[in-house]
């Protein structure tokens, strides 16, 4: 079986190309890709007038200024990103498919700008979509070969981006089925796209499941991207790849047209190199949608997230979720030092840190997977039944497809699929619904009780800050190496199960040679997404911790700890 699989990407071949193509500003990439794409070493050649632009550093407002005054066009910007994809993605594995209409859409954006001005702050901006977000013009596979012939319409998120003038440049690789197929899955691997690599150190894992979405923006293959999260799948890859990622409040962004794990926790959200870019994307994709009942609970008047307050930390009281002694023993000292330095930076920006612990975590963790298994069976069967195309009709059909496919089960199994198939859906088992209701109540209480400090509102906390991730582990496979993802520590679960917002922002570097990004997460009350983005943007401005990726081949091995739940 393994001899027939898509070859695993081994990273050494990229290094010579990196020297020629990547140790220059991202904006220097300007060659138009041909059908097969230019050789990586040619990435700096070409004639497009982008030599003065560093794509890694530029924000959407800066790009809009250039397009408004004629120094830049969407066509040229899109061409530059397509060139980077053609030159680099053969080794990064972040992009599953490139839109054949990207150039035409960019030209149409330029005409719209000339005729009546930009339709939104995303006019002409290239965006990658995680390949579990439906697109009519491109396949939507969730990384599975079983969905190669599906034929969905645009998801609400996709439609809103297009209507805003954004250029959907392609679909991003992901952990297949959003890391909810096998108990020992490898993040960033899918049967359709193979393995995604960290652009910081190429033999390290990007985390998941929004692996390609994070790597795509980290490596300047697009300006922004859309990821999705059930628990950790936006914030973990964002943290491990040195970008900003927002997991919105459940119901703020429509779930229509997203391949599900569970309607009780799933949401799409923005990923970007800059907090302002993430906020601008949120403003476009957020809002009520008749196709998703959960959005009816969103406030009728949403604050403009992109009106960022870079003094938001001044005078704010912020909870700091400290590590227990047991957790501290697992987390390496350099990562703890990054977190400690981040707390000092919060103080320097005028915040008052308050050490906190969140209650009920063991009970929440114990109930989450059983609830998700039953909800996955219910929601995935409904998605498959509603999606046209030649594909299995239900979860049972997917299990059968995988069992006979030469690629799908080459590196890990489908135990979660099989467990989900064996469960009763929530409508048929009151105990399943009771578990969901209980863990949601506890997750919300774990955050609400910490935010409400003291007797009066003056004692309340603006948000809770935690360590997003530990340094990326080396990519391994259960059936090849006897081990898979080596997760150590995460703070994603309370906000994920509560349906509350969570934003991660780069905080520094740790791991061997200090080469691997570490982020901090800022999470808080329901519908407080804009306020959290204010805090994240202020911290980003204060810390200035992000650095462009270095595309190192390796930094050597490190010990592989035990494996908690991967991001979903």
Characterization of this structure:
It is built from 17 helices and 13 strands. The radius of gyration is 22 Å and the shape is globular. Residues 1-49 have low confidence and may be disordered. The longest helix is centred in the middle third of the chain and has 26 residues, at 361-386. It has one domain (12-364, 435-543): Amidase signature (AS) domain (Amidase signature (AS) enzymes, Alpha-Beta Complex), CATH 3.90.1300. It is of the alpha/beta class. A hairpin with a 3-residue loop joins strand 4 (189-190) and strand 5. An eleven-stranded mixed β-sheet has the order 1-3-2-6-8-7-12-13-11-9-10, sandwiched between helices. It has a two-stranded antiparallel ribbon with strand order 4-5.
Number of strand elements: 13
Specify the CATH architecture: Alpha-Beta Complex
Domain tally: 1
Main β-sheet description? 11 strands, mixed
Can you identify the CATH class? Alpha Beta
The percentage helix is 25-40%
Strand order in the largest sheet: 1-3-2-6-8-7-12-13-11-9-10
Number of helices: 17
Instruction: Say what the CATH topology is.
Output: Amidase signature (AS) enzymes
Features:
two-stranded antiparallel sheet; 568 residues; Amidase signature (AS) enzymes; alpha/beta; 12% strand; 13 strands
């Amino acid at each position: 079986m393994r001899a027939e699989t898509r070859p695993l990407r081994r990273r050494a071949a990229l290094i010579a190309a990196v020297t020629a193509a990547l140790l220059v500003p991202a904006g220097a990439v300007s060659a138009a890709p041909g059908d097969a794409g230019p050789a990586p070493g040619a990435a700096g050649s070409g004639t497009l007038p982008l030599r003065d632009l560093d794509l890694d550093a530029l924000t959407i407002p800066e790009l809009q200024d250039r397009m408004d005054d004629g120094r830049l066009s969407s066509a040229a910007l899109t061409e530059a990103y397509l060139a980077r994809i053609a030159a680099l993605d053969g080794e990064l594995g972040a992009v599953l498919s490139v839109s054949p209409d990207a150039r035409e859409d960019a030209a149409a954006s330029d005409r719209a700008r000339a005729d009546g001005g930009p339709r939104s702050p995303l006019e002409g901006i290239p965006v990658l979509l995680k390949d579990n977000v439906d697109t009519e013009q491109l396949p939507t596979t969730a990384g599975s070969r079983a969905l190669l012939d599906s034929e969905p319409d645009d998801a609400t998120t996709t439609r809103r981006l297009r209507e805003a003038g954004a250029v959907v440049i392609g679909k991003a690789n992901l952990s297949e089925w959003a890391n909810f197929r096998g108990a020992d899955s490898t993040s960033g691997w899918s049967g359709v796209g193979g393995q995604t690599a960290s652009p910081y150190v190429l033999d390290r894992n990007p985390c998941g499941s929004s692996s390609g979405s994070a790597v795509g923006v980290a490596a300047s293959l697009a300006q922004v991207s859309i990821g999705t999260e059930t628990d950790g799948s936006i914030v973990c890859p964002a943290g491990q790849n040195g970008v900003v990622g927002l997991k919105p409040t459940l119901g703020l962004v429509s779930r229509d047209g997203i391949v599900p794990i569970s309607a009780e926790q799933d949401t799409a959200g923005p990923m970007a190199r800059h907090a302002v870019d993430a906020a601008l994307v949120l403003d476009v994709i957020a809002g009520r949608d008749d196709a998703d009942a959960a959005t009816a609970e969103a406030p009728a008047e949403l604050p403009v997230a992109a009106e960022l307050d870079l003094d938001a930390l001044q005078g704010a009281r912020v909870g700091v979720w400290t590590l227990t002694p047991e957790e501290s023993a697992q987390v390496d000292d350099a990562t703890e030092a990054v977190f400690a330095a981040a707390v000092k930076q919060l103080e320097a920006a005028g915040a008052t840190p308050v050490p906190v612990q969140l209650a009920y975590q063991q009970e929440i963790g114990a109930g989450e997977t059983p609830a998700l298994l039953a909800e996955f069976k219910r929601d995935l069967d409904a998605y498959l039944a509603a999606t046209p195309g030649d594909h299995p009709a239900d979860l049972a059909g997917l299990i059968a497809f995988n069992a006979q496919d030469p690629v799908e089960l080459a590196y890990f199994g489908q135990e979660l699929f099989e467990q989900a198939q064996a469960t009763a859906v929530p409508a048929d088992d009151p105990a399943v619904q009771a578990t969901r209701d209980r863990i949601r109540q506890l997750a919300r209480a774990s955050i609400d009780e910490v935010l409400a400090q003291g007797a009066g509102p003056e004692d309340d906390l603006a948000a809770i800050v935690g360590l997003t991730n530990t340094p990326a582990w080396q990519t391994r496979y259960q059936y090849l190496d006897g081990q898979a993802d080596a997760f150590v520590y995460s703070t994603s679960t309370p906000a994920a199960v509560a349906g509350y917002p969570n934003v991660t922002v780069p905080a520094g570097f740790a791991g061997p040679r200090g080469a691997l990004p570490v982020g901090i997460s800022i999470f808080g009350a329901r519908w407080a997404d804009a306020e959290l983005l204010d805090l994240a943007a202020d911290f980003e401005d204060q810390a200035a911790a992000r650095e462009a990726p270095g595309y190192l081949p390796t930094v050597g091995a490190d010990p592989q700890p035990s494996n908690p739940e991967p991001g979903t």
